[in-house]
Amino acid sequence: MRDIDNVLARLSKSTFRQRFKLRKAEKDYLARKGLSAMREHAHGFVTKRLAMAKPPDDGKQTPMKGHPVFVAQHATATCCRGCLAKWHGIPAGRPIDVDEQTYIVAVLDRWLSRQVSKDFEASEPRLL
């Protein structure tokens, strides 16, 4: 596992990863449910879709849109075991342990929190 801020800085330079942004429906859902619920959803998705040694349809198990956590997974390279190995140093081919699952949820939480902060800053009136 790597330092979250360092990984997010590296990911921000990836043309592919940069294109993932929350759409209006996903922002509205996040605003309605809150970050705490997103952490719970993230934990569930990681447990059910990524944590086993060989997830079914690995590389295709995470939709590209439809839920804030799905978008965050692609933006943060936590969408499949190959991306987790390449970007986060979590090897494929073995189950993901509890500490690694906690780390993945923290990565997703950090990215979603930043999205909320950006939206808040963009909505703030500017003082002259």
Which tags fit this structure?
single chain, mainly alpha, 128 residues, 7 helices, 62% helix, globular
Please, could you describe this protein's structure?
The chain is mainly α and 128 residues long. The protein has seven helices and no strands.
Short description:
The protein is an all-alpha fold. It has one domain (4-116). The chain is built from seven helices and no strands.
Q: What characterizes the major β-sheet?
A: none
How many domains make up the coordinates?
1
H/E element string? HHHHHHH
Q: Give the total of beta strands.
A: 0
SSE layout:
Elements: H1 4-11, H2 15-18, H3 24-33, H4 35-50, H5 68-75, H6 81-88, H7 98-123
Helix pairs in contact: 4-7
